[in-house]
Structures are given as structure tokens and as C-alpha cells.
Amino acid sequence: MNELCIRPGRVEDAPALRKLERQNFTDPWSEEGLATSLASPLYYIRVAEQTGEIFGYLIASRVLDEGELLRIAVSPDKRVRGVGKALTRAMMEENPATKTWRLDVRVSNYGAIKLYESLGFKAVIRRRNYYEKPAEDGIMMMLES
Ligand SMILES: CC(C)(COP(=O)(O)OP(=O)(O)OC[C@H]1O[C@@H](n2cnc3c(N)ncnc32)[C@H](O)[C@@H]1OP(=O)(O)O)[C@@H](O)C(=O)NCCC(=O)NCCS
Known about the structure:
By secondary structure, this protein is of the alpha+beta class. The chain has a single domain, classed as Gcn5-related N-acetyltransferase (GNAT) (Aminopeptidase). The chain contains 4 helices and 7 strands. The chain has helices at residues 14-24, 31-39, 83-93, 110-118, and strands spanning 5-8, 43-50, 53-63, 66-74, 100-106, 122-131, 136-144. Helix 1 crosses helix 2. The longest helix is centred in the N-terminal third of the chain and has 11 residues, at 14-24. The relative contact order is 0.15. The mean pLDDT is 97. Coenzyme A (COA) binds at residues 24, 72-74, 79-85, 105, 109-112, 114-115, 118.
């Protein structure tokens, strides 16, 4: 099957997510932490898969009617083809009880900011030195439905 598939993450996906974490972030989650999150009902996790290969994923948490997008990444060779948007749209559509979504993003992360803005997220506050490795300001963005 060659079509892009967005499906719930499974514990056995932890090594693939760990690989993407290392490719995309300077503070990657451990494989153990990913496996624990994949097993937990507290997290909403979706992976993007094609021909058996996972090349994108999204991790969010939800409490009552509030949700937080914690992690999203797409393999560098599969970017700007709508995968990140499909993952984020799935998060919003599959959690209708979540009325407010929030996330944090590095000020320099142009591609991610474009993705979030394209879905209606708005910048609400700039947080000084929110990030480490390297130190950088963050922008908190929110979407209210
Ligand atoms: C951020 C990220 C997940 C986006 O995934 P993606 O699959 O490339 O995004 P999409 O193709 O779905 O793009 C969604 C929209 O953002 C735009 N966009 C995405 N990346 C862009 C870029 N680098 N430059 C300009 N626009 C960009 C697209 O053109 C598209 O706009 P449209 O819907 O108006 O046409 C991806 O760049 C990534 O993995 N980055 C590294 C990890 C990361 O930074 N995660 C976010 C941490 S907050």
C-alpha cells in the first residue's frame, strides 16, 4: 500500500520515533520515554506512514477542553508536502472536545510557524530564552475553536 496513512502510534513504533527525534531536535526524547508515552492514554500520538516507513509523527496531550501540541516532526526529505498539516488536522478533528490548543515554537522555526499559522494558530506571547541548545526565545501560539 503506497498511500500516506495517518494512524495511532504503537509501542513498537518507539525506535522509529526515536530516530526522527534525533534527526529533528537537539533535546530528543529517549526511546524509553517514547515507548511509555505510546502506551499511555494520556497522550494522543499519530504517525504518518507510507510503504511501511514512518516519516512523521505528532504527540499531544489533552486535559479537559485544553490540548497541547508537544512534538511534531516530518523527515527532511518529505517536508512541505502537506504531511505536517495532515497530522495537525487529524489532531484537531479527532479531538472535538478540545476547544483550545496551544504550543511553543522557536522564533527562528519559520516552517513550523507557517504550518501553525496555516491552521489558524495565533502567536500570543514571546517567551525570553525559553529554549536551550541553542538558547532562543519561544513563541506560544494558540488556537481557539
Ligand atoms: C514543522 C514541520 C513539522 C512541518 O511539516 P511539513 O510536512 O513540512 O509541513 P506541511 O507541508 O504540512 O506545510 C504546512 C504549511 O506550512 C508551509 N510550510 C511548511 N514548511 C515551510 C517552510 N520551510 N517554508 C515556508 N512554508 C512552509 C507549507 O507551505 C504549508 O502552507 P499551506 O498549507 O498554506 O500551503 C517540519 O518542517 C519539521 O519536521 N520540522 C522539524 C521539526 C520541528 O521543527 N517541529 C516543530 C517544533 S515546534
